[in-house]
Design goal:
The chain has about 150 residues and is α+β, with helices and mostly antiparallel strands. It is about 40% helix and about 10% strand. It has five helices and five strands; from the N terminus they run H-H-H-E-E-H-E-H-E-E. The chain has helices spanning about 1-10, 35-50, 55-65, 85-105, 120-130; strands at about 75, 80, 110, 135, 145-150. The strands form two sheets. It has a three-stranded antiparallel sheet. Strands 2-4 form a two-stranded antiparallel ribbon. The longest helix is centred in the middle third of the chain and has 20 residues, at about 85-105. It starts with a helix and ends with a strand.
Length: about 150
């Protein structure tokens, strides 16, 4: 994970290779109402909760860049699927990942899926080296990070 974090950091600082083209759109190219407005409001609420003003573009980008450090988490789960699989199998992976996340929570760990890694799929593949025709599922929708143990009995 240290190597992957270093490669992404190098890219973000402008010293690494340019990103490869994205393999798919994270959102539909012309997101329609009410989803477009919901996405906007969600972003506004996120940065307001972090006390980052809308005008502070560097701070917003800095916060967004934390995605590629798993927000400091010590563990990142990379999930892959054969490229020939269709939408139903992507849905199955979502169900599987939700089960993993619930098991992590039961063990006292928080987790969250991350989509942002799809923008770095080439670096992930370079470091992880998936077999054959596998694609990084985050190159569709899943990333999981374990944040920390939760205090409790």
């Amino acid at each position: 994970m240290a190597l992957l974090r270093a490669k992404v950091r190098q890219r973000l600082e402008g010293d690494g290779p340019a990103p490869a083209p994205v393999e798919y759109d994270i959102y539909p190219p012309k997101l329609w109402s009410p989803y477009r407005e919901r996405r906007f409001v969600n972003g506004e609420q996120l940065y307001a909760a972090l006390e980052i003003p809308r005008e502070d573009k560097p701070a917003r980008l800095g916060q967004f860049a934390k995605n590629w450090d798993f927000f400091g988490a010590p563990v990142g789960l990379m999930l892959y699927v054969d490229r020939g699989m269709g939408r139903p199998q992507w849905g199955d992976l979502g169900i599987w990942l939700q089960s993993v996340m619930l098991l992590l929570r039961e063990a006292g760990l928080d987790s969250c899926p991350q989509e942002a890694w799809s923008a770095q799929h080439d670096l992930v593949a370079e470091v992880v080296r998936p077999p054959g025709e596998r694609t990084d599922v985050d190159a569709h929708f899943h990333r999981c990070r374990a944040r920390q143990y939760i205090d409790g009995d």
